[in-house]
Amino acid sequence: MKRERSRKLYQQACEVIPGGVSSPVRAFKGVGGDPLFLQRAEGPFVHDADHNRYIDYVGSWGPLILGHAPESVIAAIEKTARDGTSFGAATHKEVSLAQKVTECVPSVEKVRFVNSGTEATMSALRLARGFTGRDRLIKFSGCYHGHADAFLSDAGSGVATLGIPGSAGVPAGAAQDTITLPYNDLESVEATLQTIGDTVAAIIIEPVACNMGMVLPQEGFLPGLRKLCDQHGALLIFDEVITGFRLGLGGAQCHFDIKPDLTTFGKIIGGGLPVGAYGGRADIMDTIAPTGPVYQAGTLSGNPLAMAAGLATLEELSAPDFYPSLEKKASSFAAGINEALEARNDPAYLNRIGSIFYLWFKPGQTTPPMNYEDIKTANSERFATYFSSLLNQGVWIAPSAFEVGFVSSAHTQSLLDATVTAIGKALDAAAGV
After folding, report:
1. How confident is the model at residue 167 (pLDDT cuts 50, 70, 90)?
2. Torsion angle, CA of 27/30/33/35, rounded to 10 degrees?
């Protein structure tokens, strides 16, 4: 495939944008070569600036569970835009979306809208500190909760892709109250809380870790965190920016039957437009201004376009057959990939939950990764070759060995089957690396 236009745009971008991109992982540093510049998309496809078409499994990094430009969402955005794009005031659409969220997610009694997942997590942390009167936070190695200072230690995702442990520019004091522990290690959490439990405001976790590749919670890990938080008076925060509305209308917390105190959302909740949200118990949420002393604000929070897109998306997801149909597609897709892996003596391990999937390039591995240290033992060079082969075959996956892929309702069985064939060829290409 020729990508001359993308190459020229990247050269131009590097002159006026740091690294030529507005988010680091887009720069292809983890896979080599020049990044794609995408121009348009529809359904399961994206098109680059050179008019090449790709089957898309990035889905804008998770929001596009319905595929690109679904008619109902586009119609809602267009209709709303005719009445104005931003007011900086309350609108009925944010009330409607808030009502929908509280109906779908039992732990969320009240919700506040913001503009990104990062805003949601940083606001939830401030709220937890304000509510408990404590400062310390427990997070887990490899979990990414946005780029706020307190969260960037051992944070997976783009930080891992670039091979850096955290970020320059974060004052030591900003992260001194952040305690980072291994994912799936309940004993380390218990030991930490026994020592300093009365100073910990919250434990924040991706209930399914999707920013260090994918790591599923071991049986008993999430219930154990819930119990420990109750024992020590800390709040349990589920970061469902990725898993929210992806694993069902109730997200991962309903899938695993765990009730957090606070939940953060992003991606799907905005139907592809910039949005975030955090919500939880009413007594905690009422600590936010103007009803309480914890301040958080945003000019574009509750933006009517994002509210309309999110509401239209959640209405589609509420159809009784939506998630069973998506699960059927994802299950069939995973079965095909596993057959391809088995035929090649398992050069990688497939991890999947619902419509989220991840290939861990650990040859001969028969058990799933348990934490970030496991994930980092993968063969990143082999992944880079695999990625390039798929791209040249017209399949678009995330340009990082630390990111997951997504199946959408727009993917047809024939496209999934074609992708399995392409994956087989890509695995062959990567075999010698």
Report:
1. low
2. -30
Selecting among 100, 110, 139, 267, the annotated active-site residue is 267
> Whole-angstrom Cα distance, residue 249 to residue 244?
7
Which of the following is catalytic: 10, 57, 144, 349? 144
Q: Which amino acid is at 426?
A: A
Domain boundaries defined on the chain: 4-69+320-430, 71-317
**How is 319-333 classified by DSSP, letter by letter?**
STTHHHHHHHHHHHH
**Which pairing describes strands 235-239 and 200-205: parallel, antiparallel, or unpaired?**
parallel
Active site residue 358: no
CA quadruple 235, 241, 243, 249: dihedral positive or negative?
A: positive
Which residue is listed with tokens 């080599």?
32
The answer to whether the beta carbons of residues 405 and 397 sit under 8 Å apart is yes
At what angle are helices 71-81 and 304-317 packed, to 10 degrees? 150
328 an active-site residue?
no
Question: What is the SS3 assignment for 7?
Answer: helix
Q: Where does 4-69+320-430 sit in CATH, by number?
A: 3.90.1150.10
Whether the CA torsion 405, 409, 413, 414 is positive or negative: it is negative
My answer on whether omega of the bond before 290 falls inside 30° of 0, hence cis, is: yes
Instruction: Write out the E strands in 44-97.
Output: 45-48, 53-56
Give pLDDT, residue 432. Answer: 73
d(CA 363, CA 431) in angstroms, rounded, equals 10
Q: Which of 48, 56, 154, 239 is an active site residue?
A: 239
pTM score of the predicted model: 0.94
Q: How many residues in the chain?
A: 433
CA R_g for the chain: 21
**What was the pLDDT predicted at 326?**
98
The yes-or-no answer on residue 57 being catalytic is: no
Q: Is 259 helix (H, G, I), strand (E, B) or coil?
A: coil
**CB neighbour list of residue 299: distance below 8 Å, 6 or more residues apart:** 86, 88
Domain 71-317 is in which class? alpha beta
